[in-house]
């Protein structure tokens, strides 16, 4: 049965007139093209890679990119190559080697990741349209640990493969071979059977890979049977293109230059490149990219080597500082609560469940001035988490000194002589700044210090500068309306921390269910929560409350009929966080759980129900969803055509797409929409 995934995109699609909008997606390391050479490329090795493989993995990565740089230089007609590359190695490798400490480099911001995960072929994660950038290239561990002969036999030469994936990542090219529902063969304009290939005049033969002999035609379709494929003749002197088709036997990208038949694009082939790029060749798309547009990066005569230089850095403990607004407006009372209370609830959920053990967290507040509420505290016990929650302010007063709060947060990151670089700030505010220094004054320092700032804007009067502050520091911005439903703010907090992944599969819990539930006086409400087999460890059913004690009766029934209540051995009340938790450390029953909430009181009660869980083991992945938009910036003063947006949801289990899921989204108060499955675990609304 298809897994049902319902995604509410309200918090991710928030409109600020005349202001940038951040996309809910991880910002990757910036790659710069300087005098024909790419600089700043970050390759990260996952924490799951064993330290006893360190030398082999590093050496193989270097060799692969040295080869790829040479291949790239030739494929782009002597225009670009890799000049400098940083390799991020795991913290778990220890200090046996004198690695340089990482600064802003993290696994989650890497352009290329090396990980022991499926699929077992090199791939590029992308959800952009033709010509748009991808997210990252994934290199399976086997590429860098297997025997060279085995790797070459199974995958071919890594250098050309990296160039093929670079075409996806950098220039938004698409595959020119048969993928998913695209055919292997078609009838061309002369009604001749032709293979889906590029270049147009590439020679080869159609071979039945089962019978190991020439293909036969299917009488129903008039095309070769499903067991046939086009086998390139690698000794054909005209085989030069295309790297987006057969990168193991070609060396160039297809072009539309009719004077060069060896690289001529096959515009008739029904493949992804023609389909998504309106029939344009790879080079036609590339020439529209800033790397080559307007004669950028002209051919050069490189007399020195194209081999890149390498810098090896080691990951360090993640540091996060909450930067919380305590101005007077945070006391605004709407629908039964204040903004300050809702902030405390969302931050408590975040600290109790979302932040992994081993992370260091600090807290800063700002009103008329800024104050350090808690220096960096490394989380190892529940007591550590509750002590951090105690430091969250309860009341607001004064004006709004956002700049001071940011300055004080950097001071927290630098405590003990450490560098602020690589630190993460999560700033929450509901108003415009009123005190010096201003955001514009401190932003250059934040950028120079290589600090990431995520921002959560409460209400539509929050300072719109917070959106661009996040974008300019490689962070993300979120919007919370300030209503009585805090689910958007809870989700925003959780989303910021998942951007700090080190590649450990089960590092973060999954937010499986989140809903604000109203239970009328003298009434009952039933909710159902589905638990699938990709999770089940450290599962927590959490119920929030606002008074002195939890006011509802809870009866949870497992799929097999077992009952759990607030008095069960696995229940716990956190009076600091004001939450009732019913926990299952391992082997949570798979299936549908029934939750009965009973209110015997004379007044209606609202509780936030949050269910979270982890993957069953440290080396397994849970199913996750991620929502994204097609562009980072929207100009609301521009023409109507510039307002086109694509909303998508990615449904993945590690690096593997989940196919056939039913996915629906709701943007603001618009009707729910079903998304189309593109066959890669990504579900798309074509346009809003």
From TrEMBL:
InterPro entries: CLCA_N (IPR013642), CLCR (IPR051266), VWF_A (IPR002035), vWFA_dom_sf (IPR036465). It comes from the Eukaryota. Residues 1-24 form the signal peptide. The keyword Transport does not apply. PROSITE patterns: VWFA. Pfam families: CLCA, VWA. The keyword Glycoprotein does not apply. Residues 319-497 form the VWFA domain. Keywords: Signal. This is VWFA domain-containing protein. It comes from Ridgeia piscesae. The lineage of its organism: Eukaryota, Metazoa, Spiralia, Lophotrochozoa, Annelida.
């Amino acid at each position: 049965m298809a897994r049902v995934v319902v995604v509410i995109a309200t918090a991710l699609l928030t409109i600020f007139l005349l202001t940038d909008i951040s996309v809910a997606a991880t910002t990757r390391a910036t790659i710069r093209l300087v005098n024909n050479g790419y600089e700043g490329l970050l390759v990260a090795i996952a924490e799951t890679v064993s330290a006893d493989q360190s030398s082999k993995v590093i050496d193989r990565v270097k060799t692969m990119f040295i080869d790829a740089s040479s291949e790239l230089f030739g494929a782009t007609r002597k225009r670009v190559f890799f000049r400098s590359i940083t390799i991020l190695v795991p913290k778990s490798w220890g200090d046996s080697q004198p690695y340089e400490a990482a600064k802003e480099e993290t696994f989650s911001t890497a352009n290329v990741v090396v990980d022991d995960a499926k699929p077992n072929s090199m791939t590029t994660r992308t959800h952009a349209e033709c010509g748009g950038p991808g997210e990252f290239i994934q290199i399976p561990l086997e590429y860098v640990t297997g025997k060279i002969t085995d790797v070459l036999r199974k995958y071919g030469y890594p250098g050309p493969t990296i160039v093929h994936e670079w075409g996806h990542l950098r220039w938004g090219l698409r595959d020119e071979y048969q993928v998913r529902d695209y055919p292997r063969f078609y009838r061309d304009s002369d009604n001749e059977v032709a293979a889906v290939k590029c270049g147009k005049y590439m020679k080869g033969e159609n071979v039945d890979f089962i019978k190991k002999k020439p293909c036969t035609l299917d009488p129903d379709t008039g095309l070769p049977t499903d067991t046939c494929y086009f086998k390139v003749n690698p000794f054909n002197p005209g085989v030069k293109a295309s790297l987006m088709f057969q990168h193991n036997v070609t060396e160039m990208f297809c072009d539309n230059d009719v004077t060069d038949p060896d690289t001529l694009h096959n515009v008739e082939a029904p493949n992804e490149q023609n389909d998504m790029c309106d029939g344009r060749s790879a080079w036609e798309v590339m020439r529209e990219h800033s790397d080559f547009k307007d004669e950028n990066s002209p051919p050069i005569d490189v007399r020195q080597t194209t081999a890149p230089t390498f810098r090896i850095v080691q990951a360090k403990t993640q540091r996060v500082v909450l930067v919380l607004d305590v101005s007077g407006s945070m006391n605004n009372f709407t629908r039964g609560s204040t903004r300050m209370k809702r902030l405390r609830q969302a931050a408590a959920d975040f600290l109790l469940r979302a932040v992994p053990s081993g992370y260091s967290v600090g807290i800063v507040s700002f009103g008329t001035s800024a104050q350090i509420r808690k220096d960096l505290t490394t989380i190892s016990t529940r007591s550590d988490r509750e002590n951090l929650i105690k430091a969250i302010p309860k009341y607001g007063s004064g004006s709004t000194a956002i700049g001071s709060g940011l300055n004080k947060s950097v001071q927290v990151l630098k405590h003990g002589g450490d560098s602020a670089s690589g630190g993460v700030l999560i700033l929450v505010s509901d108003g415009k700044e009123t005190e010096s220094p201003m955001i514009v004054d401190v932003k250059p320092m934040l950028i120079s210090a290589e600090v990431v700032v995520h921002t959560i804007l409460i209400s539509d009067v929050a300072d719109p500068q917070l959106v661009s502050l996040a974008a300019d520091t490689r962070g993300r911005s979120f919007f919370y309306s300030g209503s009585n439903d805090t689910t958007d703010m809870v989700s925003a907090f959780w989303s910021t921390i998942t951007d700090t992944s080190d590649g450990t599969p089960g590092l973060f819990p999954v937010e499986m269910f989140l809903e604000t539930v109203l239970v009328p006086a003298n009434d009952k409400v039933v909710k159902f929560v589905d638990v699938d087999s990709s999770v089940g460890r450290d599962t927590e059913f959490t119920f929030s409350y606002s008074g002195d004690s939890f006011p509802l009766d809870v009866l949870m029934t497992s799929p097999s009929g077992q009952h759990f209540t607030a008095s069960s051995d696995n229940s716990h009340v956190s009076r600091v966080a004001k939450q009732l938790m019913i926990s299952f450390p391992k082997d949570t029953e798979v299936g549908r759980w029934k939750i009965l909430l009973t209110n015997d009181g004379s007044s209606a009660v609202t509780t936030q129900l949050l269910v979270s869980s982890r993957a069953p083991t440290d080396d397994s992945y849970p199913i996750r969803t991620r929502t994204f938009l097609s562009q980072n910036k929207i100009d609301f003063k521009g023409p109507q055509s510039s307002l086109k947006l694509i909303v998508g949801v990615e449904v993945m289990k590690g690096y593997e797409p989940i196919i056939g899921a039913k996915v629906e989204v709701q943007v603001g108060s618009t009707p729910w929409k079903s998304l189309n499955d593109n066959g890669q675990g990504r579900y798309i609304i074509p346009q809003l």
